[in-house]
Amino acid sequence: MFVRRFAAFALLAACTAAPALAQDASQAPAAKPAHEKKVCRYEKPTGSNLPEATCHTKSEWTQIDSAQQAYADEMKHSVMSGGGQGH
Fold it and tell me: How far, in Å, CA of 19 to CA of 5, rounded?
């Protein structure tokens, strides 16, 4: 469940940055990539035995995986440094 929420957050953050990137793209038109095939991953939500499919393009999965890894690294660093509790 946490992974799914974080993935949704990462996707939202990526979509929020899109308008700023669109301005740069309008100044220098780039070749539009071919339609990417969707890749589905099946995950069992917490408390369920039924897997649910989540489908994104390969590049979207790369962004999601990178964001999740960065978040995990940040949490690990936070725990290792005392969690910022001011002891």
Answer: 23
Beta strands, E only, the chain: 38-43, 52-57
pLDDT for 58-71, tens place per residue? 999 999 999 999 99
* Alpha carbons 30 and 38: distance in angstroms, whole number: 22
Residue 85 vs residue 48, higher pLDDT: 48
pTM: 0.52
Q: How far apart, in whole angstroms, are the C-alpha atoms of residue 86 and residue 16?
A: 33
Closest by Cα among 60, 23, 18 to 38: 60
